[in-house]
Amino acid sequence: MAANESSPRRLSPEEALVRGRWVKLICGASNQDLPAIADLCAVFATAGVHCVDVAADPAVVHAARQGLDWAETRTGWRPWLMVSLSDGLDVHFRKAWFDPAVCPPQCERPCQRVCPAEAIGDRGAINPLLCYGCGRCLPACPYGLIEERDHRLGLGAVAELLNSIRPDAIEIHTAPGHDEGFEALLQIFDQSSLPLRRLAVSCGLEAHGMAVDELATTFWRRHSHLQRRGLSPLWQLDGRPMSGDVGAGTARSAVQLWRAMRSIAPPGPLQLAGGTNHHTLHHLSGDERPAGIAFGGVARRLLLPLLKEAQLRGQSLREWPEGLEQAVALARELVTPWMDRPC
Hints:
Elements lengths: L12 H7 L2 E7 L5 H14 L3 E5 L2 H18 L4 E7 L7 E4 L12 H5 L22 H4 L6 E4 L4 H11 L3 E5 L5 H14 L5 E6 L8 H18 L3 E6 L9 H14 L8 E4 L18 E4 L1 H16 L8 H19 L4
Parallel strand pairs: 1-2, 1-10, 2-3, 3-6, 6-7, 7-8, 8-9, 9-10
Antiparallel strand pairs: 4-5
Helix pairs in contact: 2-3, 2-11, 6-7, 7-8, 10-11
């Protein structure tokens, strides 16, 4: 089917969560590559995802909506727009930094080779608009020159931002010991009177060095906060953070975490994320049904060559018919197996 043709009826986001067919695109909580975000949202919305998750930044949200508007005009389908926040320090809300002036001329720049976002130039510094904080460059630097810098939105700016962008859903990245920060964010939501479709809570084991029972306890503590407010939760299991483009092993980790959590998590949809990719579905048996899946690094890496080619042509991917057709086909190859799972 061509990218500009109408699609058959898709399950609504809520129906998809109930039936285990929910698919979300993660553009990156620190990703500020505006042209790429607009194209990613357009392509994956055309492919039928139920939600796109972007950084809580007005320019990023504007770019995402450009892509969603474009897709809706052509397909009649519009996913939820979700923005990501953090209730404390979190690896998803950081960017790498180093001073290129102190980088030794003889350095072979392994940091550049391992960067999945191609945010590190041949001799220059890290492009903060492209870096989404995966952290792979940190141990790669043989001189220890790269550092990470916090990129969270301050609480004082959250209320104004949410009132201006009015997202459909919000995701909070949390961790043990962040109870006060979580409650502070919810109080801001109370004041904004946002009609949220869902409030997603994201947490995993690796980033915080905890056991499965501690993760379950963290989710249950967050559940009590949401229950008091009548908010509908979506529990996101961050199996192997920001690593879906690495390979099959990360997909296995995401599934193993879901298996460990499915009987001890609080009520509400339990969704896979963190390391998810084409291999994830193969690690699940036919009767195992997570509520859905989120694709981040693998989705962005999948379209990167086409996004770069469009840039070289001086146009967006949406304006390049041949590239767009290829991009939508690649996106569908990733997401359709989940959306077509038998009930």
